[in-house]
Amino acid sequence: MESKMTVSYKELGLVNTKELFAKAVKGGYAIPAYNFNNMEQLQAIIMACVETKSPVILQVSKGARDYANATLLRNMARGAVEYAKELGYPIPVVLHLDHGGDFEICKQCIDNGFSSVMIDGSHLPYDENVALTRKVVEYAHSQKDYVTVEGELGVLAGIEDEVSAEHSSYTPPEEVIDFVGKTGVDSLAISIGTSHGANKFKPEQCTRNEEGILLPPPLRFDILEEVEKKLPGFPIVLHGSSSVPQDLVKIINTYGGKLKDAIGIPEEQLRKAAASAVCKINIDSDGRLAMTAAVRKVLAEKPAEFDPRKYLGPARDALKELYKHKNINVLGSAGKA
Ligand code: G3H
Ligand code: 13P
Ligand code: ZN
User: Fold this and answer.
1) What is the 3-state secondary structure (H, E, C) of the chain?
2) Distance, CA 210 to ligand 1 centroid (Å)?
3) pLDDT digits (tens, 9 = 90+) for 142-180
4) 159: CA distance to ligand 2 center in Å?
5) pTM score, whole prediction
């Protein structure tokens, strides 16, 4: 249960995405949207973003709310704002609902300090997606402090706890003007070949280079360009944008893991997307891989260890380095806060 009193995100020191996206589209970079479920993940995100002077979107999924408790997560985000200041550089922090499944969850988040929500009606028939998204936008934009809304058009493949779609369908560029016009969304997630999780492509969809390394099919930049032509300067979002670093997969499998055919989106392609109207890039799986690799290594090398700080600490360090690398080399958000 969440408290009955409503809380505005401004009281928590958070910002919405409006200004951040406007700057990112103009500047040819993307704001990192990192998911968190626990303290170590949040510490790593904030440390990395403060050290690289990057704005950040903290994402909370339904799975995260069920796991960690919504009230606790909201107050952790408030703490994150204070923590950034204490680290010496106050960065803009957005608290965003990831893949909101219905109006009620979006409303609950808006009433409880989120500065941004996603309403994911991508699996619905077009007219139902428009109607649901419009309803969330009307509520979010009528608040005293304007809450920004992300909608989605097109379906990503991939299976996760709360996000599942067996078959993907690319975003039809001819629908985007109508969708944005009718719904009033502040940003639009599109489907151009990314997907959730650590197995983004089947091996048969990939080619191999001379060293036998699997190369995934390229993202559909033609669709992205069409969308940009129809909606010049409008903020576009990419979900499912983990790169699944093979060194992390190798560490996991060396220390007892069994990840098979794990493959992600190459970093150069994300960099190219970030230089366009893509101004928010969602990354969760890479963080999971970094933490798991570090935890497995510590526990394998020090089997007598039983203090959680001794394995969660190295996991947090690995996560922080991963995020710094993303901000500096992939998203281009470093130095933009
Ligand atoms: O896109 C979804 C995120 O990766 C969150 O995943 O629902 O398992 O928390 P989750
Ligand atoms: P990944 O599974 O590729 O990290 O995508 C995360 C995501 O899209 C969260 O909304
Ligand atoms: Zn997603």
Assistant:
1) CCCCCCECHHHHCCCCCHHHHHHHHHHCCCEEEEECCCHHHHHHHHHHHHHCCCCEEEEECHHHHHHHCHHHHHHHHHHHHHHHHHCCCCCCEEEEEEEECCHHHHHHHHHECCCEEEECCCCCCHHHHHHHHHHHHHHHHCCCCCCEEEEEECECEEECCCCEECCCECCCHHHHHHHHHHHCCCEEEECCCCECCCECCCHHHCEECCCCCEECCCCCHHHHHHHHHHCCCCCEEECCCCCCCHHHHHHHHHCCCCCCCCECCCHHHHHHHHCCCEEEEEECHHHHHHHHHHHHHHHHHCCCCCCHHHHHHHHHHHHHHHHHHHHHHHHCCCCCC
2) 35
3) 999 999 999 999 999 764 444 555 567 999 999 999 999
4) 11
5) 0.96
